[in-house]
């Protein structure tokens, strides 16, 4: 890879340009230039790359499938909204060289967990950035440049003392081990060292018993503490001698605190930890709105990338708006708008590849096609017939109950839509009941569905032959047969639903109607959601693909709260925060009082919740480490960081508090401030940590955030590893906090 390679960069079927790609010496940067002009076009960092996909796994490469074999094609996928890079290598061997090389670099990228055991790649990266004259040495002027790059506004005299202390050769420059020593001194964590010495009798090491005391007293580890202490020493102590003596050095202590075991997120909750044998309606379900769109709702681009990104994010409920296309081929796009279109067969192919995978692991839990917009001709039906939810005859497997559990629905694809007759007809055999093809809602979505039928199923005129009419009738039955457990029905009030609706049915509400129901009948809404599915979708006025807060919908137990996944912000932070637990499977079990059909709970009255009284969450915000600069900031600018902690939950729990700002220090700011919150319904609370760059004349700039459910918080001294606006990690940026939870 470092020797460079000539490949085709592809933007469309007709735009294929040869470019020379090369991995830079820092093993972190790849640049490419034009073969014809020799001019460098662009560069990107390995840290910006999310994954590499082999073969024809983009619309562009799929359109070239007849021209170039999949063995020569691959796609580089970037974090955030940056477009993918589609490439065609000269041979399968060259393609594999780059694919495997990039994957190794992606897997090996890591951040410095301690000042003593900093990664060589990371040090080399900083050294090369600061070594302006590229002579392999760093003079004091370059050190000052490095400090600015690292978000440090350090007194010049202090910086000179650090430089001279590291310059053992007294040459006036730093190289090799001298630079490593300088970096160690620069990244010294005094607050962690002080904590270490509080539990260490000699101030140099923690014995096994001293580490056990720390784990019990501060980290509140009360089970198998001695075994845990031994595991931590074996895993994080860098010295073989110390490991043999069962002691932990200061470096090993910091390694532990920066590890998953030292994270604020309970590591046991990263895996599948909840009961997965409950009915579907007892879970919050990660859900996307108009999944095919990666931009706005009117003129935005439709792309299979929207489905891939949502599924890899753990989404289990997607939308597929399907319309007639040229030559009878169904197309997916936002009807009655100017959005681009993608073939339905490409969407089905994408779902087949990704619907039951997440992060390389199998994801067996059911996948829902939420939109009942499959108004297309038989080719689309044949595509659906091949999905894993089908029986041997290509039609849905006959259900065995009206309210199946997640276990029973493993590896199934459920379609939400209109249905002829009732689910009982499939259980008991064909009946003579009149067709029931109810709309989802009495409002805008129902009207949209009616218009969609008119557009796709031609009515009137000389084209209406008996054969066409027969196809139409067959289509309706085929579509109906695909809908099993998510039959769309109109909502005519909670009393009507309780008397006549069934657990296998679902109603949809625009966000405004959902808010009215929450305000006027909160408890009834909670009870309704204890036995039947509800879907919430954004207002049609959100043409910019903005989002509403999902929290108020979760507060009444709504399961399918659909958001525009392509739009970063607080709303998607909450969504990612809730569904980052439970193996990221896209399902989170609702609290017991929201699964009881006779519950008295109303989110506007927290006293209606059965269970213990309010709890107090105390957060000491101690320090921050290597916070990133604000995007598009001026050269030499250093941030003034502050930390805001937000509680999102029932109205009584909604709160936010923030620290003071620290002037000119994004590298290692110290706040040492304590924030305290009272939570009346902790089971529904999400905690969001936000770091901002203070600005006294304008709005503060976003620096980083981390959001998690209160149920996943681990008390004690913990690190919070910050995420970007797009929800991607920004190593090594973190906060160091102390958490206490009391009743």
From TrEMBL:
It catalyses: a 1,2-diacyl-sn-glycero-3-phospho-(1D-myo-inositol-4,5-bisphosphate) + H2O = 1D-myo-inositol 1,4,5-trisphosphate + a 1,2-diacyl-sn-glycerol + H(+); a 1,2-diacyl-sn-glycero-3-phospho-(1D-myo-inositol) + H2O = 1D-myo-inositol 1-phosphate + a 1,2-diacyl-sn-glycerol + H(+). Pfam families: C2, EF-hand_5, EF-hand_like, PH, PI-PLC-X, PI-PLC-Y. Residues 479-595 form the PI-PLC Y-box domain. One of its GO terms (molecular function) is calcium ion binding. It is a peripheral membrane protein. Residues 595-724 form the C2 domain. GO terms for biological process: intracellular signal transduction; lipid catabolic process. It is found in: Cytoplasm; Endoplasmic reticulum; Membrane; Nucleus. This is Phosphoinositide phospholipase C. The gene is Plcd4.
